[in-house]
Design goal:
By secondary structure, the chain is α+β, with helices and mostly antiparallel strands. It contains five helices and eight strands.
């Protein structure tokens, strides 16, 4: 399980029929509405070869909404690391809930304070106990993720969008 930090959702500006391969998404024809894209969806999607698809015959097309701002940044963390990051940011929920949102400017403030005050992350060694494996985290991991979250907050502020995590 993981937690993804990203910008708050806004309605899509257009829709495409594509797989997740970047070149296929770039080559896809945009449709003004979801209904128009659904109407153009192929009757036999398993037989469609998408231009630019990196895995022909294995990717299946689906309808994808395009964000008005283009590619939206996101930071994905394992649950344990997300919990630690939220604690450092001062945004941890008492019940351990790993979902939430904050105004971009507020989230940016939390990031700046955490980057200024949090001591260098020494990391956590990997541990194996039978079949259970905790991969730990490398030295500097926390500062690297805080920097990525700072950049996400700057992007969200420029777009007038909140930061969300779930």
């Amino acid at each position: 399980m993981s937690v993804t930090f990203t910008a708050a959702h806004v309605p899509s500006k257009a829709f495409i029929i594509s797989c997740c391969c970047p070149a296929a998404k770039a080559a896809a024809t945009p449709y003004a509405t979801y209904e128009a894209a659904c109407a153009a969806y192929p009757a036999e999607p398993n037989l469609v070869e998408l231009p630019g698809c990196e895995y022909p015959g294995r990717c299946r097309p689906f309808v994808i909404g395009l964000d008005p701002a283009g590619d939206v940044p996101e930071v994905n963390l394992a649950n344990a690391n997300a919990r630690r990051v939220l604690e450092v940011l001062g945004l941890a929920d008492e019940l351990g809930d790993l979902t939430g949102h904050a105004a971009a400017e507020d989230f940016l403030g939390h990031c700046l304070i955490a980057l200024a005050l949090e001591p260098a992350d020494a990391g956590v060694p990997a541990v194996q106990d039978g079949r259970f494996i905790d991969c730990g985290r490398p030295a500097g991991y926390l500062q690297d993720r805080l920097t990525e979250l700072h950049d996400l907050a700057v992007w969200c502020a420029a777009q007038g969008r909140a930061v969300t995590w779930a």
